[in-house]
Amino acid sequence: MQENKPTVQLSTNAWHYRFMKFILRSIAPTPENMFNLCPYFWLFVCSIIIAIPVVVIRYFFKFLNWTLCGFSWVLEKTIILPTANSWYDKLTDLDVYQIWDHIMQINSVYRLVYGDDTDTINRDDFVEKWWEKKYNKKAKHNGQSTKAFKKWIEIQHIKYREIENQKIINNPPHTFEIKMEVFRDNIGDRLDNLKNWITSWKTLIKWTKTVLGAIITSLGLFCTYFVVNFLGRQVLWIVEHWDWHTVLIVLGIIGCVVVAIGIFMLLRIWVEFIKEKKLKLWYVRIIYYLLYWLVFIPLKIVLYYFFWELILRNLWALIVGGARLLWGSFIGFLGIFGEYFGASYTDYCPGIEWVPSKKTKK
Fold first, then answer.
1. Which residues contact residue 40 at a Cβ distance below 8 angstroms, ignoring those fewer than 6 apart?
2. Inside any domain, residue 115
3. Which of 22, 101, 272, 302 is the most exposed, having the fewest neighbouring CB atoms within 10 Å of its CB?
């Protein structure tokens, strides 16, 4: 029977998820494609590392876009609108036929003014309105093209083919141009592949671990330098200001404590030994009770009950309890970091159980 594998509950309302979504945008993990904590954690660390440059670049381009929008409004009124109308007025019959036959695009400046920045202007409507304005005739009647308009299309088609055939005769296609087109296509494919590789989770996690390892190593070396430098200075200070009297006093205190502990242990062994012999001799009983009440009991009170039970054990319990409390608070404060490091003592990566988001009531 398989044991239930541990899981970690996460929500799309969690701050770390929203932060990662803000930084990584479309490549951020979702409940539909992320099921393990380890890759989720490293993608979150990646978001932290790249947060500042991403935000700076993103808002720089937003500011640039706002600035360009302001300039474009001014340019539209002063340059773009007159340019679009000028292009429209200078169109020839052959130019309009090429637009109708999808050979030539409608001028982008004209689209910007009278449509938008995409080719959403209907070509047929554009050509028919231009033709009606120039020839003062109807291009369509009852939904069908008129004979005059069809005749005009046939004439322009013949003219265009004659011009194109003459271009082919005078200017045969160059092999260099064909090779450059193939080269541009290859470059475009390579750039797309590079973009997909850079934005893949595997690549992001790999480089995040590498960068984080380099940062931790650098910080470790930095801290090691200062620790070694500090310890070296302290050793030099001790050597320079060495005081034998102070050392002897400290050693004497330590020696007295050690001797007291040794006497206490010997007396404890002797007391146990005398108890086993039942105190048969009267002088043994006198020595025993004198040493027991005057030496052993005071030493036991001072060394065992006071120093060991009252001070050392309580101090140790306080340190351990405080450390556990701080560690629990620290893990809870870290959130996703605590979840990851709390499970990092094993090689198993916990699964993710996505908790449904609480929708705000209107």
1. 10, 29, 34, 336, 352
2. no
3. 272
Domain carrying residue 253: 243-350
Please, what is the end-to-end C-alpha distance for the chain in angstroms? 47
CA distances from 294 to 276, 301, 306 (A): 21, 11, 17
Question: CB under 8 Å to 295, separation ≥6 — which residues?
Answer: 263, 267
User: What integer pLDDT is reported at residue 276 of this predicted model?
Assistant: 65
Q: Do the domain assignments include residue 34? A: no
* Nearest-angstrom CA–CA distance, 274 and 259: 22
| Cβ contact 201:40 at 8 Å | no
Note the pLDDT of residue 329.
61
Check the CA dihedral 235-241-244-247 and report its sign: negative
Which residues make Cβ contacts (< 8 Å) with residue 35, sequence separation at least 6? 351, 352
Residues 255, 342, single domain; the answer is yes
Give the separation between CA 53 and CA 24, rounded to whole angstroms: 12
Q: What is the count of structural domains for the chain?
A: 3
Q: How far apart are CA 290 and CA 176, in angstroms?
A: 116
Angle (nearest 5°) at CA 60 between 59 and 65: 90
Residue among 143, 110, 148 at smallest CA distance from 124: 143
Question: Distance between CA 298 and CA 59 in Å, rounded?
Answer: 76
Q: Is 199 helix (H, G, I), strand (E, B) or coil?
A: coil
Amino acid letter, residue 225: Y
Q: Is 269 exposed, middle or buried (0-12, 13-18, 19+ CB in 10 A)?
A: exposed
Closest C-alpha to 130, from 98, 102, 89: 89
Q: What's the pTM?
A: 0.43
pLDDT along the chain (362 residues), means of 10: 64 86 86 84 87 90 86 76 84 89 84 67 86 88 86 89 77 50 56 59 79 82 86 77 71 79 72 64 62 73 76 82 70 57 59 71 42
